[in-house]
Amino acid sequence: MKTVDKATETARRRYDRNASFYDMMEAVLERYRLRRWRELQWSKVEGTKILEVGVGTGKNFSYYPVGAEIVAIDFSTRMLARAREKAAKHDVKVELLEMDAQALQFEDNTFDTVVGSTVFCSVPDPVRGLMEVERVCKLGGKVVLLEHVLSANIILGRLMNLANPFVVRMAGANINRRTVENVGKSGLVAERVTDLGWDIFKLIEARKTDSSSRAAAAA
Ligand SMILES: C[S@@+](CC[C@H](N)C(=O)[O-])C[C@H]1O[C@@H](n2cnc3c(N)ncnc32)[C@H](O)[C@@H]1O
């Protein structure tokens, strides 16, 4: 896939590099926390036309609502290849597409709900990605994000800022993103933010409203 800029190409390559051991890297957090949080996240989905952004290796497949029409995208060829294998093995009904979240190839107002789990920590320009999410979400539609963010605790926040350059090089994810604020900047309206753990993991439920579309258009 041709990516738009150097930062995006670098980020994409990191996920390609880590794809074969990504599930292993996340195994402990997955088992003790993420599973439960994913279940909660997918229980918030509305409607039947769903977009999953940054599908990765397909860890959300087991939570997909029965009967929904789901399209899932990722910019990493190798992460997507693992998702394809998983989908085939477990007969998951999903259309998997290689695509950059910052330049979604869908019409405006296409999806009832857009979902992403631990994605906007990695998208190089998260506000641009979230504006794209806002654009393709139907008016009145929902956006449900499970994200880790920069801690509001001053000491922990400083440590996260210090560690971020190393983490991002190793894992591809930034640990100092302000995703709740970024959702607001995209024009989406955050309706509910639930702290899931340590004031770092958040479930963000947002909506595209009339005013959110106006804000995005004015930006
Ligand atoms: C931390 S992984 C999370 C994967 C999956 N959502 C999960 O919960 O396991 C982040 C994923 O987002 C993808 N990603 C990051 N930036 C992206 C972008 N600009 N466009 C599409 N996918 C992106 C990465 O390739 C990776 O698969």
Task: Describe the fold and architecture.
- The protein is α/β, with parallel strands linked by helices.
- A seven-stranded mixed sheet has the order 3-2-1-4-5-7-6, sandwiched between helices.
- Strand 6 and strand 7 form a beta hairpin.
- Helix 5 packs across helix 7.
- The radius of gyration is 16 Å and the shape is globular.
- The model has no long low-confidence stretch (mean pLDDT 93).
- The structure holds S-adenosylmethionine (SAM).
- S-adenosylmethionine binds next to helix 1 and strand 2.
Distance between the termini: 28 Å
What is the H/E order?
A: HHHEEHEEHEHHEEH
Helical segment tally? 8
Radius of gyration (Å): 16 Å
Shape designation? globular
Largest beta-sheet details: 7 strands, mixed
Bound molecules: S-adenosylmethionine
Q: Label the structural class.
A: alpha/beta
Beta strand count:
7
Q: In percent terms, what proportion of residues is strand?
A: 15-25%
Q: Which regions are unreliable across 5 or more consecutive residues at pLDDT < 50?
A: none
Topology:
Layout: H1 6-18, H2 22-25, H3 27-43, E1 49-53, E2 69-74, H4 77-89, E3 95-98, E4 111-117, H5 126-136, E5 137-148, H6 154-171, H7 179-185, E6 189-197, E7 201-207, H8 210-218
Parallel strand pairs: 1-2, 1-4, 2-3, 4-5
Antiparallel strand pairs: 5-7, 6-7
Helix pairs in contact: 5-7
S-adenosylmethionine (SAM) binds at residues 8, 11, 15, 54-56, 59, 73-76, 79, 100-102, 117-119, 122-123, 129, 173.
Task: List descriptors.
single chain, 219 residues, alpha/beta, 42% helix, binds S-adenosylmethionine
